[in-house]
Write a structure and sequence with these properties.
Blueprint lengths: L7 E3 L5 E3 L7 E7 L8 H12 L4 E7 L10 H11 L19 H9 L14 E4 L5 E5 L9 H8 L6
Parallel strand pairs: 3-4
Antiparallel strand pairs: 1-2, 3-5, 5-6
């Protein structure tokens, strides 16, 4: 069993999320920030979620204020994401993605798929694609538009040639 399935995180509304619940699904993990200049990517992520959720895609949005662009508590973040931006994919409570206080999931993601300039997360909207078997497949830069991930997502879902 992949280590990925051993992690537990907390949802934006305070409930535990056992990553093992995502066995057999492709998971895109993204550190998000609603006040970031890249926040319009939330629309693209939501579009992917709506298109591929039924096929087994999970998008996991992880708010982080480590770049000072995600102010507010969980309620404010949820309101901004859900009501203002129309995000329906799962969200976690705010978490650190870098440093000694980085969430264990993010520590693992960075160790499995270090970036070209080192393991640290350089900015909001860094994305990690995990395969249906829990194995990390790809890391994408913050500026990679979610639409450009569609081919990799289709492949991870085993849908190539179907959709």
């Amino acid at each position: 069993m992949s280590i990925f399935y051993n992690f537990e995180i907390i949802s934006i509304d305070g409930h535990p999320i056992h990553i093992s619940n995502y066995k057999g699904k492709a998971v895109l993990v993204v550190n998000i920030a609603t006040r970031c200049g890249l926040a319009p990517q939330l629309d693209g992520l939501e579009a992917l979620w709506e298109k591929y959720e039924q096929d087994g895609l999970v998008i996991l949005g992880c708010p982080s204020n480590q770049f000072a662009q995600q102010p507010g508590d969980s309620e404010e973040i949820a309101t901004e994401c859900r009501l203002v931006r129309g995000v329906k994919f799962p969200l976690t409570q705010e978490m650190n993605v870098n440093g000694s206080q980085a969430d264990p999931l993010w520590q693992w993601l960075k160790s499995e798929l270090p970036g070209t300039l080192g393991a640290n997360i350089k900015w909001n909207f860094t994305k990690f694609l995990i395969g249906r078997d829990g194995q990390p497949l790809s890391r994408y830069s913050p500026t990679t538009d979610p639409a450009k991930l569609e081919g990799d997502i289709v492949q991870a879902l085993g849908l190539a040639g179907i959709k």
